[in-house]
Amino acid sequence: MTAEKIRDLVAQMTLEEKGSMCSGADFWHTKAVERLGIPQSMVADGPHGLRKQDDKADHLGVNESIKAVCFPAGCGTAASFNRELLTEMGAVLGNECQAEGVSVLLGPAVNIKRSPLCGRNFEYYSEDPVVASQIAAAFIKGVQSKNVGVSIKHFLANNQETRRMSVSVEVDERTMREIYLAAFEGAVREQKPWTVMNSYNRVNGTYAGESKKYMTDILRGEWGFDGYVMSDWGAVNNRVANLKAGMDLEMPSSGGQNDKLIKEAVKNERLEESVLDTAVERILNIVFRFEENRDKTAYFDLDKDHEAARAVAEETIVLLKNDGVLPLKESAKVAFIGKYAKKPRYQGGGSSHINSHKITSALDMAAGNPNISYAQGFIDEEDRVDEALLAGAVELAKGAEAAVIFAGLPDSFESEGFDRVHMRMPECQNELIKQVAQVQKNVIVVLHNGSPVEMPWINEVKGVVEAYLGGQAVGSAQYDILFGKVNPSGKLPETFPLKLEDNPSYLNFPGEGDRVEYKEGIFVGYRYYDKKKMEVLFPFGYGLSYTSFDYSNLRVSADRIEDTDTVTVTVDITNTGKVAGKEAVQLYISDKESSVIRPVKELKDFAKVSLEPGETKTVSFRLSKRSFAYYNTAINDWHVETGEFDIMIGKSSRDIVLTKEIHVESTVTLPVVYTTDSIMEDIFKNPEAKERVMKIMGSNMDIIMTTDKDEEGSASAQAITAQMQEAMMKYMPLRGVVSFGGGEAGISMDDIRVFVDELNAL
């Protein structure tokens, strides 16, 4: 339906109907207006599966939903570093939505992993905004290719579960722009999601849904978003303020209470009716976009989609350690140990919980292999050692050639609704790994978790496989990787620190009362660890393979550019091993000398390449101004400083294999306002200002900076060195000239003020 027809439709609606349209009919539907032919529209939870509820609806997954397919959670899909894979996954889910009449899938969730303790990290993609936004954009592209919308969430700075409905996130503008907004920005600009979901929390004191700055000025004004903004379920504090800010649809239904408030606000002239009209137009635009593009032939093939989930899971698994123990031979006598071998933890708890139509475990895949035996090893419902289960597992491991321990975090340790209190795995599992390693030299640990864990046993095992929460087909992918049928290609989208205390947010998570300060600023994840040169367990971007890759021939299309130019970077990747494999190539940028505090390096792009043994492919990247820029709050824009930058190609943030220097020339002159407090060093950065200072004050410099001309070694010469004089001159403010020789030099504060005016007039 055209925009004109939608406006005509809104013009025919009563004030009551318009107010009503801005809240849900129930938990999952928008309201219908039958007399005008406006249908209901259904939304459903995602993003890694379809959680459609018809009756007994709820938000946190307590009640039953339809049988569906659970794909790997965001923690895993980001590890694929594969845009094409995410687009394919999104298309499958979009088709499922069409088959079930769902207009909007609630996801993806792109909030930054500020702390490993966030209980909802399993849904989120990364500690890095480029990975988060690019993986999200690929997913959105796939879903919306089926004429089904997404709701990218949770906008904005929703990085903890503690007090999530009331906490105020205190964060500076540069950090917000470079980290937390950037996670959304790329996806919104590139793929135009149909809807955006605002978060529960406050941002610098204002509820996100009541912030015109974020809901309208940035989201719509700067990024070009043209859909509607819906609330997270219950994320409404002041309905009228929401509408004014640009939050259009309240979910779920308020039982008509907020509809009345909207109506009264218009009648009392506290809300312009045109603001309400615009919100209704946005909602109807999405309602009819889906309705007019319904695919009546769409069919939800559960088994086919299960295989699609398996293909995704294969690329989400990260091989973290392999001391020659993997891949295993199917003829080898192998002990599968741990409850998750039989009943894997493959998804998180809460609103994204999928009612899977079937689940494939690693033990299911081993059913036809007589060389594989099984012991449960532990109980995950409570963290206590079951001595009988432990003894049985140890005994089984003794007689095997290798032991694979399927461990990780139970639902009670991480879920929506609460944050973790530590980074440890259950002690019963750590004890199991420790004791098995004492009797078996070939131990592989397969982890099921949505966020980093500490590994006190890391030096006692030969292999570690990070399976994350790999969806309902995770067992198939695990088995195929363990036995070499699939070559692991995942890379960590987050840093695994050695211990919780190393994390940059440690001292300020989850805050005090209803306030949390992001004091680490832009130094989130690897930006912090790399700047500090801090040892980590596994770095960002890290992941092993059963083959090897050689990086060579790094080229740039130009070695000197202006910040308005783009530059193409190419690099050759060769599979130098004996098996086919995929490699996630990462491009980082380092500003070699900056006047502002910046990370050592920042990821700016990545690409996944598939290679047969001996094959070489060229990977290409395109860099623009944003690739070299930081956010400058003085001009409220992205700014590049003139200077040298390193283009780095790496296998992880800690494994940079090729570097190329490039010179970038800024085309923007930053505004400078001089005051009596301006120091000489800053003034001298402007050649014209320096010349003026030297011309007017040059004859007085000897008086200002005079010292006794005593012989070397005298008391005065020892007290005031040449280095001290130089430093004093650099850091002296203009007003200091009066104190240090002003009388003798004949310079007054009035003279300084006139001089400042002259400098500002340059």
TrEMBL record:
Keywords: Hydrolase. Coiled coil: none annotated. It holds the Pfam family Glyco_hydro_3. Residues 583-653 form the Fibronectin type III-like domain. GO terms for molecular function: beta-glucosidase activity. GO terms for biological process: carbohydrate metabolic process. SMART domains: Fn3_like (SM01217). The keyword Lyase does not apply. The keyword Iron does not apply. PANTHER family: BETA-GLUCOSIDASE. Belongs to the glycosyl hydrolase 3 family. This is Beta-glucosidase. It comes from Kineothrix alysoides.
